[in-house]
């Protein structure tokens, strides 16, 4: 078992208020992140009884909001991407949630000065050219590394474009499938006041969720499924005896790197499903959370590109929700380098300070504090930030959408093609799996033993 990373000690702003599990559920949902919450809500709407088993002592998975210096700060997902197709945007609107559209304006910082208008224009142009080229190549050529489709004539901005796409992809573009890459409409993004994690925790209220309940194995040898708990502990009532809970079907929302490393299926999964799971790579994207009141960036929720120095931070989000908080993002390359040096969270803090000092001068950092550094890649319940499809593996998401034995469904961000790597995609996939399960179970009789 991996030791708990630093981010796991921060408490969520919205504490779970859940209800007891039914003694004999129709469906077990494993994991209470975006996908598990969506699945449980939809299954209950469809009249089925549900038991959600969650390893952590909180809900939300890779979306969690904590309170730092009086402000709500997300330590995982923060953007509601792809507004027109994100079900959490539509649901948020119908609930009157405090959504706001993300700013289109960005900051450009070149060396030790703000970027000029002509530099800004050249940077945007390079992005547009690269986007068109990759999208075109994806529709015309065989799969391969997405990096292959980056045009060579992007000039000085080419390196920056590759760095940003590598950051948001979760791996450098030579490790990302061309056929999987251009699948998310990044425009029309939203934020939610109070944080994305807090929003998901509100959606989980009154759901039948058992926290602190890791599942180690799923037995599907009989007619239904049996989830085996890590500690083998007993729970009162129903079928929850000797650390085993039985149901007619299961929706598994456990992140794929956890399925790869620390989860068993008895009997083993069919080969195509196993190969789909095993082929994903863990995407790496981490927040170094800055509290920096005097930062030179003005305007709420703006991305900042800092270029032209020895260190090139792949991305920043500044003045989050109009507070003195900013994210300094770590990509896979930097995180790997810090890990190989055994640097830990304080090493990430030193790194962020060194980069900022190079561009803004040490004097500008007098009021900088770094209250949190995430390490989702080392978190035993995520082992990465999202799942990345490497070249040649583009069919994996569709394979994972297929049920196994009419009683195991997978859901989660890894399944989503159109909203890959996102909480919105995970939620969509949770709804999709729940609909399939409800349709399937309504057409088959409940066996007498359940
Ligand atoms: C730093 C960071 C920033 C991000 N930024 C964004 C963003 O801005 N916008 C966006 O949309 N997405 C973002 N993402 C990605 C987003 O957080 C995920 O895609 C999404 O939350 C995944 O939801 P999920 O339900 O598939 O998985 P998870 O949220 O990981 O939920 C799975 C649940 O299963 C539980 N679990 C794991 N193993 C077991 C087990 N054995 N037994 C029982 N339970 C188990 C976990 O504890 C977890 O609660 C970001 C991620 C990170 C790490």
TrEMBL record:
Catalytic activity field: L-tryptophan + O2 = indole-3-acetamide + CO2 + H2O
Keyword field contains Oxidoreductase: yes
A Gene Ontology biological process term: auxin biosynthetic process
Domain Amine oxidase: 179-437
EC numbers: 1.13.12.3
GO molecular function, one term: tryptophan 2-monooxygenase activity
Cofactor: FAD
Keywords annotated in UniProt: Auxin biosynthesis, Oxidoreductase
Functional pathway: Plant hormone metabolism; auxin biosynthesis
Top EC class for this record: oxidoreductase
Coiled-coil portions: none
InterPro entries on file: Amino_oxidase, FAD/NAD-bd_sf, Flavin_amine_oxidase, Flavin_monoamine_oxidase
Residue sites binding FAD per the record: 54-55, 215
Family assignment from sequence similarity: Belongs to the tryptophan 2-monooxygenase family.
Protein name: Tryptophan 2-monooxygenase
